Amino acid sequence: MYPLESSINEKVYPFTQLQEKLETYGMSLGGAWEYDHGYFDLKLADDGAYHFLRIPFRALQGSLDEKEAMVQIDQPYLLSHRYKNDVDAYASSGALEGAVNQFQTPVEKDADIPHEYIEKGKEALQRLEGLLIK
């Protein structure tokens, strides 16, 4: 994880408005959101690891499933997940397991972030700040 300084840190937005703007920018709501917090991700690259710009947020008023929910952005950061990209040497997984367990667990959940992706992440965050702060 690589924390980023940002002018959107601690800014408050209506959740539906924030979601609309960030999704227009290409970000997606992370699948592990809860009613009181979550994050938006922008995939920067997939080169043996997934590199993301992550914008975490938490509900200040209401819950995320309510139209009137207000959220506060927490400190953005970069995140890399290194994953196994080879074939199962033992071929132990069958069709049923493949249907149930479709997603790989990262080999390294908090992998080092190459310098080029730190720069890409900072640039993406600057563009995002311009979109959100007017």
From TrEMBL:
SUPFAM superfamilies: YugN-like. This is YugN-like family protein. The lineage of its organism: Bacteria, Bacillati, Bacillota, Bacilli, Bacillales.
